[in-house]
Amino acid sequence: MRKRLPPLLLALSVVGLVLAGIAGVPPEAPAQAKKKFAMILPGPIQDADFNALGYVAIQELAKAHGIQVAHSESVAVADAERVAREYITSGHEIIAFHGGQYPTIMKKLAGQFPNVAFIQEGSGRMADAPANAWVIGRKFYQGFYVLGVLGALTTKTGKVGFVGGVRLPDLVATANAINMALRDHNPKASLIYNFIGDFNDPVKSRQTAEAQIAAGADVLLTFVNLGLYGVAEAAKSAPKPVLLTTLYTEKWDTAPKNMAVALVFDFAKPYKEIVGKILRGEKGGYYEMRPGSGMELSAIRNTPPDVANKVRAVFKDVVAGKPLPEITDKAP
Amino acid sequence: MTLNPITDIQLWQQMLLYAAPLIIAAMGELLIERSGVLNVAIEGMMLVAAVVCFVVAWELGSALPGIAAAMLASGLMALVLAYYGITLRGSQITVGLGLYVLGIGLSSLIYRVVFGVRLSPPRVATLGPLPIPGLADIPVLGPILFQQNVLVYVALLLVPAVHIFLYATPLGLRIRATGENPRAVDALGLDVARLRYGATAVGGLLIGLGGAYLPLTLTGTFSDNMTAGRGWLALMLVIFGRWQPGWALLGAFLFAYVESFQFKVAMGTKLVPPQFLLMLPYVFAVVVLIRIYSGARAPRALALPYDREARG
Prior knowledge:
heterodimer, A: 332 residues, alpha/beta, Rossmann fold, 2 domains, 41% helix, 20% strand, elongated, B: 312 residues, mainly alpha, ABC transporter involved in vitamin B12 uptake, BtuC, globular
């Protein structure tokens, strides 16, 4: 009986490792003449949020341009270079990094593989972007300025909360934008903010939201992915009404009585345009995602009509290019 | 913003709410370890329990079948550990680590297979507070202790129940003896393997309840790796508690208190980097563990397979 143990243990460990690593290994691609595109995502595509939108974008990309697409989800920064290299060596000519975590890796690989086109998401133009790289500058803070206006005009306690994921420059700029909106539209209101170190931990998000609600916040603006579900639970069980905002996708059913608005993203639009240009030989460039360009405001609910109208008007102004006050990525 | 770590009732409420899954899982682990089996698969077991609970509760629209299924799933994993560790006398650490890794992958896989990719994720209703009539209105203590969800009460009641079971019942004495000196238990004509199987299975059921707690009370949804180290913390609490239920409870309270407190500190001051504050509960756990571990005595036969034919 004992002789069987090592092979069984080995098999068990192998199965476990394969299942755990299933997301980080690029699938084998069938031999086809189509152009090959691969996307590297930082989180699971089941998040119904940022990563799911990336997955949706590549499916639409395949239909729009007839290319062969692949993806690897939940890729940690430490693994991203290995995964990207595996795609490149298996013939993928376009590599997209769907997340602001990977620019260093992208730059390194772009230098080593000049025939491969790279797409990198970030917070704006990249000063030293390689010639074979497209940069998608996502101006989150412009959209969050508008959400901040909603917070400023709806708070009754004068305290607006912000639950952020990882403390990236994007998120710090976002917190600054909200702060700016409060100053512009309700100078008596103040911002309470936390970065919980994770976009997908609903338990920590809930703890943070509960702490902010206990500190008096009655409007919570969120910049987390799966973490939103924890925030929604905190809002639903709060002793007083709490309004929520979210981003990427509409999530009304998460907290129907609390959800006010979502900043909705469409990643298919920039990806289709960029890949179209790459296929026509334009290997590098810049695409800006901002209000009106891949970033829209959902319907506004649970909010007085005059406030909703004002928020829509501010959004229109931002879309029209009305300059916002200078917003930095230094801590508020 | 003023911070008062003593008079802030919400802080104490949060402490209980977030300590509960640690307490439940730690009680399960404690039962297993007192019988001489070391279960390092606890994190993976909690994850599998969480996803199974979520899937069943979502399919049937009810929390109870979800809890039952979660406990069964985790109990089954515990039996796999028992089979390798007790019957086959394999290395409990190796099998446990294998099961842990399996649990991470399996929980993700189950969710993907059942739900696929959606832009509107499935959710289940969470268990809300269940105020205890007459007690919930007591000033200070009422809101903290008696306005919690039902699983918090279960967690708090489990501690004396496990203590009484281990120290005041013949079966508890036998299980403890099995963890200390299985040869002596064998000499008395008792079945060591059976006792260890029983303790491991029951411990597995409790660990499953700890895993079910997360989607059912805190989030209403499942996310990859949602236990976020809580299984390892429960394992640490057993050592912290020197294999005593009461001390493990104290450890869970301390950890949950520090964890909840750091969110308030992060809101109140921006002088300390948030990354440092997020790390604080774990640093606290490690420091306390090192301090406590010196002098702690594990069950003598912990992690040692028992072979009745081996020379003593």
